[in-house]
Design goal:
Strand order of the largest sheet: 3-4-5-6-7-8-9
Structural class: alpha/beta
Strand content: 5-15%
Distance between the termini: 40 Å
Number of strands: 9
Radius of gyration: 18 Å
Length: about 300
């Protein structure tokens, strides 16, 4: 079954295995790009208040639904609360501020219901539980179908349990062969919390190479990604796919929804076309030995340490 049709259980709903990420797509470009993604076949769009493109994404959703001839219920939409960060002079949001931020996101997107709403990072500090309580109430009121967190560690999630609140249904974290987080993933699975992967394509030499796309990717990683001896290049050739398709399929085979981003229609199609091959057990075992530790997608380093 093509990943386009594959969905993973998420609370009482389901999330498509391959979604379209919108980080670093400007608000001006988002409308056309998102509409194109939906017309190509994406049925999950991922954005965030912190991306500063929700209005453009909302316009793209409206246009894309019309282009594809599908209903709103056929599309899964994720957005995220920016929780604040006292260390950056950005006061963490409390309960009321969280609800107001949600309403602002919902209005920008032009949607009555958000399919998945996440706390973007654990940087809310002492306000984390208040923020989570607001998400729980919004879900109970029917404004959100599923709620979760992003970049949270086990300790951050255990704060929620200690407060006697419902546990998250998802945790969106950086996951790829160089940052596999096996202990966290095992914990999430034991708790019934779905890991959602972002920045799946970090190992590619073409990942975030333009000005303004800074990350914590090391020079060694950049060199390894360009090397003719890259194992991902050789594995991709073995299966007759691109390196990006190989990395995305690794996530899907591990049970992680993935969120590739591209503004090229051809690459959008490739990233969605993960049917017709499976990574064999030997290659999956080899990839399991390639973990290098913390993620690198955030220029400041691992965002789980913001809390």
């Amino acid at each position: 079954m093509p990943p386009l049709q594959t969905r993973f259980p998420l609370g009482k709903t389901q999330i498509p295995a391959v979604g379209f990420g919108t980080y670093l797509i400007s608000n001006d470009d988002a409308a056309q790009t998102v509409a194109e993604a939906i017309s190509i076949g994406y049925r999950h769009i991922d954005t965030a208040a912190g991306y500063q493109n929700e209005a453009g994404v909302g316009a793209g959703i409206d246009h894309g639904l019309a282009l594809a001839g599908i209903d709103r219920d056929d599309l899964f939409v994720t957005t995220k609360l920016w929780p604040g960060n006292a260390n950056w002079g950005d006061p963490p949001k409390g309960y009321d501020e969280t609800r107001a931020a949600f309403e602002a996101s919902r209005a920008a997107l032009g949607l009555e219901v958000i399919d998945l709403y996440l706390i973007h990072a654990p940087s809310g500090g002492e306000k984390r539980v208040e923020e989570w309580r607001a998400l729980c109430d919004l879900k109970s009121e029917g404004a959100i179908r599923a709620i979760g967190v992003s970049n949270f560690t086990r300790d951050h999630i255990e704060e929620i349990r200690a407060a006697g609140l419902p546990m998250p249904e998802a945790n969106q974290v950086e996951l790829h062969p160089w940052s596999q987080k096996p202990d966290l993933v095992a914990y999430l699975r034991a708790e019934g919390i779905l890991p959602i992967a972002y920045s799946s394509l970090v190992p590619l030499s073409t990942w975030r190479t333009k000005p303004g796309q800074e990350s914590a990717k090391t020079d060694q990683m950049k060199s390894d990604g360009q090397s003719d001896t890259s194992p991902f290049r050789h594995m991709a050739a073995k299966y007759g796919v691109t390196e990006a398709q190989l990395l995305l399929k690794w996530g899907v085979q591990n049970g992680f929804p993935v969120l590739p981003k591209s503004m090229s229609p051809d690459r959008m199609r490739q990233n969605l076309d993960l049917a017709g091959f499976d990574i064999d057990p030997g290659d999956m075992a080899d990839i399991a030995g390639m973990d290098r530790g913390d993620g690198v997608a955030w220029a400041i380093g691992d965002p789980s340490k913001l809390g």
